[in-house]
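Example S7 (structure tokens).
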């Protein structure tokens, strides 16, 4: 039973990536931000990508997005999660 739920969750995430991954990448979001569902939600919570491979000062952050890409991401996040990430959406909109 547990295996089946895990398999369905992975299948759901892969479908989400098929629908959204290319658009995210095209708008400047590194694939490391959505490599797994956990990566994606950590990114949404913090606005940066944690990495053991680089120094903290070099972690990718939403501040590196162009104004147009920041606005697109704000719209994308707000559409998917209307009330869940107001701080991230505000930070992205302030950037543009």
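Recovered sequence:
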């Amino acid at each position: 039973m547990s295996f089946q739920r895990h398999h369905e969750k992975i299948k759901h995430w892969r479908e989400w990536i098929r629908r959204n991954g290319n658009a995210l990448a095209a708008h400047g979001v590194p694939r490391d931000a959505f490599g797994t569902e956990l990566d994606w939600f950590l990114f949404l919570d913090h606005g940066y990508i944690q990495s053991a491979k680089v120094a903290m000062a070099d972690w990718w952050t939403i501040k590196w997005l162009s104004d147009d890409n920041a606005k697109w991401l704000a719209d994308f996040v707000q559409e998917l999660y209307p009330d869940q990430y107001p701080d991230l959406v505000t930070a992205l909109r302030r950037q543009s």
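Notes on this example. Helices lie at 2-26, 37-46, 67-80, 86-95.
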